[in-house]
Amino acid sequence: MAVMTEEGADQRRELRWSANKKTDAVLRLLRGESLDELSRELRVEAHRLAAWRDEFLAAGKVGLKGRTPAEDGMSAEQRRRLREAERKVGELTLDNDILRAAARKRGLEIPPAKRPR
11-54: per-residue pLDDT in tens? Predict the structure, then answer.
């Protein structure tokens, strides 16, 4: 059975980084800090920091395309149908809001309250 030293326990605690901490590290890299120096300071392997930077930049590029990541794999026809469905959902939501407001004016409850048994 392996015995973990205190130093090993510290390394194990640092295996999980929050998205905010990763973002801070990546932004420091993008501002020009040395990868090697930041790696030593944060006690994170340089290849891991470089991977975080690459993932961050790739996600930013997708965001600038104006499409969601889910839409990236869609054909033009699928995107058109999605936009049409989103428009229809918007119309139906607006219709429901108008009908609920009209029902409230008349003293009705939508959906109706359950009747007592």
Answer: 544 568 899 999 999 999 999 999 999 999 999 999 999 999 99
Tokens of 28: 């420091």
Query: Rounded to whole angstroms, how far apart are CA atoms 69 and 91?
Result: 25
Of 82, 60, 58, nearest in space to 70 by CA: 82
Q: Please, are residues 11 and 43 in contact by the beta-carbon 8 Å criterion?
A: yes
pLDDT digits (tens, 9 = 90+) for 66-104: 666 566 678 888 888 988 999 999 999 999 889 989 988
H or E element, residue 11:
helix 6-13
